């Protein structure tokens, strides 16, 4: 009995020391790591208001044309209600929106890629979009569980040249790799798409079907292929540094910020020019549609230098 | 046997030790995210917040007087400012001592900041919040008593300081700027009141309590006078219906608050219910609405005035949607016409010279009131 007791105590003490050592090690490591990577982290902001005001009429109309967006919405029949909601709401504000599905659904129209593997599907969709882009130069990839405010996306990339490689969204880090989170939407310029499709041919560095036992999420595979072609992830933020791409819903973000100081909840939660929110129910997305494109206080005007007209044949915006 | 027992005891001890210390460390906040830095930042912003509040509000006579119409960075609020000066709204919010922390303070932090004057009506006086206690108890059966006393109170104490008098619950969200748009086309000397119009029981209809309703100054005068002459009495505790019956008796018109496309502006439920059409067909609602019910996107005006059953986090959500979130450069489909009295409003506001008993009663307080208005006029 005595030896068991003392063994137990020895074990406990050793366990405690082990835990302490591990936490020290972890904090030290993550400390140096995050410092180092902070410098490499790209931040992308919209053009300033002053810059915008200086521009000529013809420059404005050039930019309005240049900034048109092709939306690739990656759906599956399992997400039918969100698919229908995206179809009925935000996707109407894309200059061209195409739904790419794993298998066809009788209810809604889509390009049927007949592919169950998500990464393979994404590759096919990207190739299809690039070939059918016409003169559109910006591409936005999202699932129907994301809600995007395309006008604010246009505002972010307004002064960026799409013949340069851009890969923008909410960036995260996985070891050495900076990648854009899928849930909050992925923005790619025409040049980034072109390089990416070139890299698809490289079966070693950018394979279609991975050989690992576990599946790497397609967002990371995408980041890897882009990295090899010299395109790096950039975090989209507003002039104050607030993220524009959100992987949470508006209500979660508000609840997160309500805890400390509720009065700040609105200021702290989200940018005025937010581009995406994720994880919202179809009803919440209908409310967001109303909140962005219709609900407003009378007498408060913003004299924006550019005008985007409402889409035809729509009544919820 | 003994050796085996000792070894497993060691392993168990190891696991227990690791887990215990891990939990302990987490509690102490050893992880990188938490640290003294954050709590400091929080404290600073609390102080800043209190200072900010004192700059924007004057707490006097148990009411909050708005000194600065809230402005947003980058916006042109001249039209809203003009309406703010000429369509003065006193908002009184029905609450209770148990709801100050739960609900009323979120009203205070959001939409009520856009009223010219705010009064929180309770059963208990609280000079800090501030709330006004009105010699009533709490409970649903006290609602009409609270309402009667509240309107008498605001008439008495603030009758000259506002043109319109809004009643709301502590779970109503109101967009005051849009209310001004509606009211600007009417005179406060007209006997009229607005809200979400219901049709049963009262010939001209009555206004839903939860969705909020607003009385013109003349309507308020007649309400108070009605009780003095006993034309109106405490008939029931169903506050909105009883008030509606009184209004009809004293000749106050039940107005049409819909926008120029006949879309409702005052709403008895949250936006989701109206927009996604989830109000069941057997629900009372379907038999109550005075105007034809529309579900889906056309349920609600772009210039919505109110929603009801809004919980605290939802208040912040609506504040974000209304005053913050927008689509860059978007040309709204609905272009509301400017109220035609805006031209008159752009002339400088005349000094109000009023006569009557009320003025004499107020006496000193009236002078105080006038001391405040030059501040507001200066902003012109």
From TrEMBL, chain A:
GO terms for molecular function: glycoprotein-N-acetylgalactosamine 3-beta-galactosyltransferase activity. Belongs to the glycosyltransferase 31 family. Beta3-Gal-T subfamily. It comes from Sinocyclocheilus rhinocerous. Residues 1-23 form the signal peptide. The keyword Membrane applies. InterPro entries: C1GALT1/C1GALT1_chp1. It is a single-pass type II membrane protein. The gene is LOC107744580. One of its GO terms (biological process) is protein O-linked glycosylation. Keywords: Membrane, Signal, Signal-anchor, Transmembrane, Transmembrane helix. GO terms for cellular component: membrane. This is C1GALT1-specific chaperone 1-like. It is found in: Membrane.
TrEMBL record, chain B:
Glycosyltransferase that generates the core 1 O-glycan Gal-beta1-3GalNAc-alpha1-Ser/Thr (T antigen), which is a precursor for many extended O-glycans in glycoproteins. It catalyses: an N-acetyl-alpha-D-galactosaminyl derivative + UDP-alpha-D-galactose = a beta-D-galactosyl-(1->3)-N-acetyl-alpha-D-galactosaminyl derivative + UDP + H(+). Keywords: Disulfide bond, Glycosyltransferase, Manganese, Membrane, Metal-binding, Nucleotide-binding, Signal-anchor, Transferase, Transmembrane, Transmembrane helix. Pathway: Protein modification; protein glycosylation. The keyword Hydrolase does not apply. GO terms for molecular function: glycoprotein-N-acetylgalactosamine 3-beta-galactosyltransferase activity; metal ion binding; nucleotide binding. It is found in: Membrane. It is a single-pass type II membrane protein. It is an enzyme of class 2 (transferase). Its EC number is 2.4.1.122. The gene is LOC107733588. This is N-acetylgalactosaminide beta-1,3-galactosyltransferase. Residues 343-380 are annotated as: Disordered. One of its GO terms (cellular component) is membrane. It comes from Sinocyclocheilus rhinocerous. The keyword Cell division does not apply. Its main location: membrane. The lineage of its organism: Eukaryota, Metazoa, Chordata, Craniata, Vertebrata. Residues 351-380 have a biased composition (Basic and acidic residues). Residues 93-252 form the Fringe-like glycosyltransferase domain. Belongs to the glycosyltransferase 31 family. Beta3-Gal-T subfamily. Pfam families: Fringe. Homodimer; disulfide-linked. The chain crosses the membrane at residues 6-25. One of its GO terms (biological process) is angiogenesis. Its cofactor is Mn(2+).
């Amino acid at each position: 009995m005595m030896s068991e007791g003392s063994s137990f105590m020895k074990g406990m003490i050793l366990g405690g020391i082990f835990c302490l050592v591990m936490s020290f090690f972890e904090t030290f490591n993550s400390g140096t790591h995050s410092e180092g990577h902070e410098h490499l982290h790209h931040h992308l902001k919209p053009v300033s208001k002053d810059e915008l005001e200086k521009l000529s009429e013809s420059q404005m109309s050039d930019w309005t044309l240049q900034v048109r967006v092709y939306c690739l919405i990656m759906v599956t029949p399992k997400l039918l209600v969100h698919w229908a909601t995206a179809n009925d709401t935000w996707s109407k504000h894309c200059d061209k929106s195409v739904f790419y599905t794993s298998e066809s659904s009788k209810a809604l129209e889509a390009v049927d890629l007949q592919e169950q593997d998500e990464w393979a599907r994404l590759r096919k969709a990207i190739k299809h979009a690039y070939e059918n882009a016409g003169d559109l130069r910006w591409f936005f990839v999202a699932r129907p569980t994301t809600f995007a405010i395309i006008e604010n996306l246009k505002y972010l990339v307004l002064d960026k040249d799409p013949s340069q490689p851009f890969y923008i969204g909410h960036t995260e880090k996985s070891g050495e790799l900076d990648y854009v989170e899928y849930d909050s939407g992925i923005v790619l310029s025409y040049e980034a798409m072109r390089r990416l499709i070139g890299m698809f041919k490289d079966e070693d560095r950018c394979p279609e079907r991975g050989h690992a036992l576990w599946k790497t999420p397609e967002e990371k595979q995408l980041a890897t292929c882009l990295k090899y072609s010299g395109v790096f992830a950039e975090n989209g933020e507003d002039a104050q540094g607030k993220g524009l791409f959100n992987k949470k819903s508006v209500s979660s973000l508000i609840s997160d910020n309500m805890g400390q100081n509720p009065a700040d909840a609105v200021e702290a939660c989200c940018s005025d020019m937010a581009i995406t929110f994720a994880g919202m129910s179809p009803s919440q997305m209908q409310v967001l549609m109303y909140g962005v494109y219709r609900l407003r206080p009378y007498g408060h005007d913003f004299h924006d230098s550019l005008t985007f007209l409402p889409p035809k044949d729509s009544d919820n915006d | 046997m003994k050796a085996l027992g000792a070894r497993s005891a060691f392993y168990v001890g190891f696991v227990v030790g690791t887990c215990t210390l891990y939990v302990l460390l987490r509690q102490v906040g050893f992880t990188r995210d938490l640290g003294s830095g954050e709590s400091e930042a929080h404290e600073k912003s609390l102080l800043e917040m209190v200072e900010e509040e004192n700059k924007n509000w004057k707490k006097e006579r148990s009411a909050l007087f708005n000194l600065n119409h809230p402005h947003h960075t980058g916006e042109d609020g001249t039209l809203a400012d003009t309406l703010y000066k000429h369509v003065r709204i006193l908002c009184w919010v029905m609450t209770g001592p148990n709801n100050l922390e739960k609900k009323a303070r979120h009203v205070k932090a959001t939409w009520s900041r856009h009223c010219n004057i705010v009064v929180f009506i309770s059963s208990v006086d609280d000079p800090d919040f501030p709330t006004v206690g009105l010699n009533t108890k709490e409970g649903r059966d006290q609602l009409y008593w609270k309402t009667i006393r509240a309107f008498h109170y605001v008439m008495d104490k603030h009758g000259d300081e506002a043109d319109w008098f809004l009643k709301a619950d502590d779970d109503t969200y109101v967009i005051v700027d849009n209310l001004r748009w509606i009211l600007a086309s009417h005179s406060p000397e007209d006997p009229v009141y607005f809200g979400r119009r219901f049709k049963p029981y009262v010939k001209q209809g009555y206004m839903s309590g939860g969705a909020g309703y607003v009385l013109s100054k003349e309507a308020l005068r007649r309400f108070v006078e009605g009780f003095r002459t006993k034309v109106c009495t405490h008939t029931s505790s169903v506050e909105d219906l009883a008030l509606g019956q009184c209004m009809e008796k004293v000749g106050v018109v039940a107005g049409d608050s819909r926008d120029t496309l006949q879309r409702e502006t005052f709403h008895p439920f949250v936006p989701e219910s109206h927009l996604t059409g989830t109000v069941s067909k057997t629900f009372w609602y379907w038999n109550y609405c005075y105007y034809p019910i529309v579900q889906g996107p056309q349920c609600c005006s772009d210039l919505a005035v109110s929603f009801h059953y809004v919980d605290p986090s939802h208040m912040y959500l609506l504040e974000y949607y209304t005053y913050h979130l927008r689509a860059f450069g978007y040309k709204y489909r609905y272009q509301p016409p400017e109220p035609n009295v805006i031209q008159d409003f752009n002339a400088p506001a005349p000094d109000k010279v009023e006569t009557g008993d009320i003025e004499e009663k107020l006496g000193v307080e009236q002078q105080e009131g006038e001391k405040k208005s030059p501040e507001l006029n200066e902003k012109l």
